Amino acid sequence: CCLFSCLGDCQQHTSCGIQKCTTDFVSFTSHLNAALEDFDLEFCKALRAYSACTYRNSKVCRGNLVYHSAVLGIGDLMAQRNCTKDGPTSSTNPEMTHDPCNYSGRTEAGEHQGGEKTLPPAYLFCGLFGDPHLRTFKDHFQTCKVEGAWPLIDNNYLSVQVTNVPVVPGSSATATNKITIIFKPYQDCTDQKVYQAVTDDLPAAFVDGTTSGGDGNSRSLHIVEKVSGTFIEMHARHIGTTVHVRQLGHYLTLAVRMPRELAMAYEESQDLQLCVNGCPSGERIDGGGHLPWPVMGKLLPQGGAAHPRSLYTVETATTKCHEKMLVKDIYFHSCVFDLLTTGDANFTAAAHSALQDVEALHPRKEHWHIFPRSGSGTVGRDSKFFVSLRLVCLILVAFL
């Protein structure tokens, strides 16, 4: 009787530490982003720390159902993520640990040192594809000519320049055949690294032949070849940035995810950035309602210049694009426009891949799809699809 009484008192007064273990695990993982390449590495470190914490509390938590559920859950998660039982673990003091070459870690450390809970860092997305279509950091969607070399991004941490060439004779539409990316030196995390891709040469290394920057252990900057010769990813942990570069057909596409505070860190002389401010009005194909929309496989002339006949009509181009994109958003309409403009089916894959990049990198799911609306000046409102509809209506009115 005394034994059971003692056990009862012990259970009441002995604290099971599972709640602290769980709280630490949440602290380790709350800032992680599944879209980033180092997610599995950091998540496994947190799981191993969680497991070690439960082991230390195994005796006092022996009769606690929450504890046993946590142990089973840890095992399942480690199996799902292919985590090894042995390996590095997250610090037992998450408030005090940070990696100076990990942007997420730096922002977490700053938050704890300040003593106040702050919002997680905001990220921005910019993409360029097709002939060419630009989605800016402000989620404005534009179609531009921008022939020659133009800066997409030029801030204190990253520079991205693209070179565009005409797609078909007589058309103002262009497409990207060269991309130059410069990761600027940052503290002890990385020295300057330059990447360059041109049509039919999409290397999985920087121009100096290396595939990473910074310390070999941390690899704050590195390149991953996703599909040989057609798709590479660059991960810059020190600035929280991910870059996708693809080749589809004879042209290149680009997508960038970057923290807002870093993307907007630039001097006044660096204001010509297409990702930040969009294309100059004089470079807009869709500006002012003068987009040369293809009709029945032939482009309407602009300035008296006639264009070659495309193999596609509006109907066949719509059917072709609908094979890959079921949602008729701005990417779908860009696909139709590109097919009618060039007759090149590779632009269908470019539009589809651009949307895949949005889904992988854009921080806000509710903004993945932009739908054309009438008007101009805001998200999706400068759509060439509705310009074409207005033009068709004017033609019909003229014949009534």
Automatic annotation (TrEMBL):
Tagged with keyword Lipoprotein: yes
GO cellular component, one term: side of membrane
Membrane topology: Lipid-anchor; GPI-anchor
Subcellular location: Cell membrane
Repulsive guidance molecule C-terminal domain segment(s): 123-363
GO molecular function term, any single one: coreceptor activity
Keyword line: Autocatalytic cleavage, Cell membrane, Disulfide bond, Glycoprotein, GPI-anchor, Lipoprotein, Membrane, Signal
InterPro entries membership: RGM, RGM_C, RGM_N
Entry keyword Membrane: yes
First and last residue of the signal peptide: none
Biological process according to GO: BMP signaling pathway; positive regulation of macromolecule metabolic process; regulation of primary metabolic process
Location of the Repulsive guidance molecule N-terminal domain: 16-85
Family of the protein in this entry: Belongs to the repulsive guidance molecule (RGM) family.
Record's protein name: RGMB protein
Originating organism: Sapayoa aenigma
Gene: Rgmb
